[in-house]
Amino acid sequence: MTVPESLHRIEIRGIPVPLWHRARVWFAGLLREFTILNTQDSGAVPEELLSFVAEATDQFAQFGRSDALLDEALSAGLEEVDQELMLPAMAKEASLELWSLIERAEKFCLSGQMLTLVPDEDVRNFVHWYLFEVTNQIAGFSPTRWPGTSGG
Question: Tens digit of pLDDT for each residue in 93-107?
């Protein structure tokens, strides 16, 4: 398969399906809360949080939307899958920005300004690994499997 110059082939190897599902559930909960906060009277929600929600909603939606590969893997009872993505170079910056937004969201979660809890450490580590696979591969590095998955 020939890859157009404008796109990068990203190989996410050894994705742990149950952990990927938990990450998706966390993102979905965060997006639901963002939607609710966006409809609130601006006086009821701190301005810094509203500003963050407006900035983060699109980025989180792109990463957290339902994914057919995950749904198929869950239905089949698979423990791990590989994923191939064709992404433009701008996905590198978008992934870095999303990680920054996640760190900011965690601060709001910890401060009690949101109902959503911070993700479990393993979910956080998974999301970090996934996003940095995108940034590293666009930068020219080879794919790295999720630690603990079988090779092959």
Answer: 888 888 888 888 888
